[in-house]
Specification:
Radius of gyration: 18 Å
Helix content: 55-70%
Largest sheet: none
Number of strands: 0
Shape: globular
Distance between the termini: 34 Å
Length: 202
């Protein structure tokens, strides 16, 4: 945060207004990656509810145990068919030793993206979020995240949401702490959005 405050006036203002962001870490491995897959295009509350039901169904939550479940039982906890396919593809890759999640701990960020994206249904966003929250990489960043794009638009007072490429370029100034910058923007996103709604309705 000290580094970001020195480098960016906008992030400094966010920190002074909304405080430092909380540390958001999740376990690495299959449980952590499964939780990220579940959270795709869902609110945090909805994703947490589905993840909780899945953890109650698959005990312990491992690739091998998930593979034993029927589509019907997985649908019963609230998983969509596309997410079931992704979780099954991930479980198959892990059970067949086609991917080593433990080995990602020391891999370069580009390699994390490359290796995870080989699994059907996992793209750059999922890989980037895994690197941030599960691997704890301080310079990981998810320029394709819509909340980050919109948060940056609001924080900078811009009319148009930045594209993935534009956000990636802007984030170069935040290296080597892009993950911390992202955490701060997510932390401020809710209040920024509420403030904009209040201005619009006034």
């Amino acid at each position: 945060m000290a580094h970001l405050r020195r480098r960016c006036r906008v992030l400094t203002r966010l920190a002074e207004t909304y405080g430092d962001p909380p540390l958001r870490r999740r376990p690495a491995g299959f449980p952590g990656l499964a939780r990220i897959v579940i959270g795709q295009q869902l609110s945090v509350a909805s994703a947490d509810a589905i993840a909780g039901r899945l953890e109650g169904l698959v005990v312990p939550l491992t690739a091998a145990r998930l593979s034993e479940q029927s589509d019907e039982s997985l649908r019963g906890v609230g998983l969509s068919f596309p997410k079931i396919r992704t979780l099954r593809a991930l479980a198959h890759a892990l059970n067949g030793n086609e991917i080593d999640l433990d080995g990602l701990a020391q891999a370069r960020l580009d390699d994390v993206r490359l290796r995870l994206s080989r699994v059907q249904g996992i793209g750059c966003w999922t890989a980037d979020i895994y690197a941030m929250f599960c691997l704890g990489r301080r310079d990981a960043f998810a320029p394709g995240d819509l909340a980050l794009q919109e948060g940056v638009r609001l924080a900078y007072g811009e009319e148009k949401r930045p594209s993935e490429r534009q956000l990636a370029e802007k984030a170069e100034a935040w290296r080597p702490w892009r993950a911390v910058a992202a955490a701060l923007i997510w932390h401020a996103y809710g209040p920024l959005k509420a403030a904009q709604a209040e201005r619009t309705s006034a």
